[in-house]
Design a protein that fits this description.
By secondary structure, the chain is an all-alpha fold. It has 14 helices and no strands.
Length: 420
């Protein structure tokens, strides 16, 4: 472990990696805009259920190729593939600059899928390789803030962007990626960790390297807290995927999008605002109570969020994510008291990430079908059924567990509430 005396301060790390933070802001700005316009643009070319199926297929491809992509990154370097990924996304933006046809739409989707597959893995591994072990959590927090900033900026201008010609949309995405490519050239070089096997205490949380078969074989070994984390990951990802699919459609069809253009950014903003406080609360209280009320708050807010696309959308979006985060922190802390198998935590992270990926794959096609059948408000509300199902499952899985005494909240995998 790095000696604390010689470990760089957080301020020094922040300054040294300013190019990376700017890269993440610009990449997420362009990537989130691209993901947000997929449903409105696709609706102009083909039936909405086909659009949902295409976006779902993209998520399935990312889920299947995650592990092979990780091995490639380990072999050839993380920073190199960050650059390659941005170049791939440049083609996604350029395709829309040419024209909006089924061909250019599919080219843009393929290019973006390649980039979405590689950037999260490369970013996590690159940050982990550079972060002193004792400061890795705070270093990853910087990463999360940069990512959330990019997502929030994208949501803030989405209403304006959807009024523009598709070629201008493509130009904005291309310019954002061009800036990201330039700044990442000035990032600190890779540490030579990718040429050998490296085992850090936090590695398995952030860099998944478990084949799908190994991950599935681990399922029977899950305890109730692990199963709840898996169900939460799936149900919440379905909900966020539905919102990210439907809200841009609502904005595109409204004369004035108003506050709704900020709606997609409220989920990340809620984490930035409440994350630290929720961690402190969970440390001092009963995890069982927090899981119960966190899931209840999440499910009720997720049900109500779609029935008003003004201030109430922002309020219920904030409450939904607060309930989601309270549940997630409590379950990870609870799991920490139930299991001390350090070697199994990597596989557990793989199972939970797999459930989240599956949710992001199911969400778009579910949203497209529900949107056509019952409209936007009920489509979003219907996605909350998955969260209610998780709350009901909690009553059967965890109600007989004893109360958990206060415990320090452990390091846990980051979970995104956005795509792109």
């Amino acid at each position: 472990m790095t000696d604390q005396k010689h470990s760089p301060s957080i301020r020094h790390l922040f300054i040294a990696f300013i190019p990376l933070w700017i890269f993440l802001v610009m990449y997420k700005l362009g990537g989130s805009l691209h993901y947000s316009i997929l449903s409105p643009l696709g609706e102009q070319l083909m039936p909405l259920w086909v659009v949902g199926a295409i976006i779902s297929t993209s998520s399935f491809v990312q889920m299947i190729l995650d592990v092979p992509a990780g091995y490639i990154l380990d072999r050839f370097g993380y920073l190199r593939f960050l650059k390659i990924s941005v170049i791939a996304f440049l083609f996604a933006g350029i395709a829309f600059m040419v024209d909006l046809t089924i061909l250019t739409y599919m080219i843009s989707m393929v290019a973006a899928t390649v980039s979405w597959l590689l950037v999260p893995l490369a970013t996590n591994a690159y940050v982990l390789a550079h972060a002193p072990e004792e400061r890795s959590s705070r270093f990853f927090a910087m990463r999360d803030v940069a990512i959330s900033t990019g997502v929030f900026l994208a949501s803030a201008i989405l209403g304006f962007v959807l009024l523009l010609d598709v070629k201008v949309m493509g130009l904005i995405i291309t310019m954002s990626m061009a800036v990201a490519l330039v700044v990442i050239l000035f990032a600190p070089p890779d540490k030579k960790l990718f040429v050998k096997e490296v085992k850090l205490a936090t590695c398995d949380y952030y860099v998944r390297r478990n084949p799908l078969g190994t991950t599935l074989c681990f399922l029977p070994k899950l305890n109730p807290a692990s199963i709840m984390l898996m169900l939460l990951g799936f149900s919440s990802s379905v909900f966020y995927a539905v919102v990210w699919f439907i809200v841009p459609l609502v904005i595109a069809h409204q004369v004035s999008s108003g506050l709704l253009s900020l709606g997609l950014g409220i989920f990340d903003l809620a984490i930035v605002v409440t994350g630290f406080a929720l961690g402190k609360i969970v440390e001092r209280g009963d995890k069982r109570t927090y899981v119960f009320f966190g899931l209840l708050l999440f499910s009720i807010s997720a049900t109500l969020i779609g029935f008003d696309f003004g201030w109430l959308f922002l309020i219920f979006g904030f409450l939904a994510t607060t309930g989601d985060e309270l549940t997630s922190i409590s379950l990870w802390s609870w799991l920490h008291t139930l299991s001390h198998d350090e070697d199994g935590k990597g596989l557990l992270a793989s199972v939970i990430t797999l459930a989240q990926d599956l949710g992001w794959a199911v969400g778009p096609i579910f949203a497209a079908l529900a949107y056509g059948w019952v409209g936007p408000s009920w489509a979003i509300a219907s996605s909350a059924i998955f969260i209610f199902g998780t709350w009901i499952a909690y009553q059967f899985l965890m109600r007989y567990y004893p109360k958990v005494s206060p415990v320090h909240v452990p390091s846990r995998p980051s979970r995104v509430r956005h795509r792109g």
